[in-house]
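can u do me a favor
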């Protein structure tokens, strides 16, 4: 008579599900602390592993990475790029990121960020990154892209030449400013210039204009 092995998986527990949950929880934790992390205060091996992981998840086109998580409306890719964006508040962090091989991943990141600039054709974009995104999510991703691209260019001017040669990048950046101008003019026509001036100086700007003055400045710096 055979007895069940206690080491066998007799419950619904799955090692793969456990690892997926650990990855998700780790990324969520990093999004909460990324803005206060400064890489030169940590072990270089640890930082290299972190950057390599973030670049991998940011540039992977697997459906598992692009599709929204079951527990959230955002994806692994979204979380990874959000972490990189928050890390970019410290220029030294960007030096570490650009110095991490391979540069192929950095180039792939540029293309992903350029795709994220496109909020008008979310479901007809070059990649599948926008599938199942709401428009508000797309605007958030566009702002991440602008902040991160600005930080990368600020760190290394050669990045600007690379980005400029990616198809549609310049036109998408111009579209961003034109969208802001169009929305602003519509509000001026409807409510008057005083309303728009007051709006720009309060917290409702992003909800109505889908961006802020700081974001426009970042875009112009690109």
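np, heres the sequence
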């Amino acid at each position: 008579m055979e007895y069940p092995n206690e080491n066998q998986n007799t419950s619904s527990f799955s090692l793969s599900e456990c690892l997926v949950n650990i990855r998700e929880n780790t990324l969520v934790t990093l999004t909460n602390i990324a803005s206060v992390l400064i890489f030169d205060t940590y072990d270089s091996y640890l930082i290299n592993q972190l950057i390599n992981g973030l670049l991998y998840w940011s540039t992977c086109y697997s459906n598992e990475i692009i599709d929204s998580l079951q527990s959230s409306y955002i994806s692994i890719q979204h979380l990874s790029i959000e972490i990189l964006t928050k890390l970019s508040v410290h220029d030294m962090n960007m030096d570490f990121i650009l110095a991490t091989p391979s540069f192929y991943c950095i180039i792939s990141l540029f293309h992903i960020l350029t795709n994220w600039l496109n909020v008008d054709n979310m479901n007809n974009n070059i990649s599948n990154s926008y599938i199942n995104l709401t428009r508000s999510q797309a605007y958030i991703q566009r702002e991440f892209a602008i902040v991160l691209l600005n930080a990368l260019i600020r760190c290394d001017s050669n990045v600007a030449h690379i980005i400029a040669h990616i198809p549609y990048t310049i036109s998408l950046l111009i579209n961003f400013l034109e969208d802001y101008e169009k929305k602003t003019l519509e509000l001026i026509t409807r409510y008057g210039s005083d309303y728009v001036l007051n709006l720009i100086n309060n917290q409702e700007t992003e909800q109505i204009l889908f961006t802020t003055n700081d974001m426009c400045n970042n875009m112009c710096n690109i």
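The chain is about 65% helix and 0% strand. hope that helps!!
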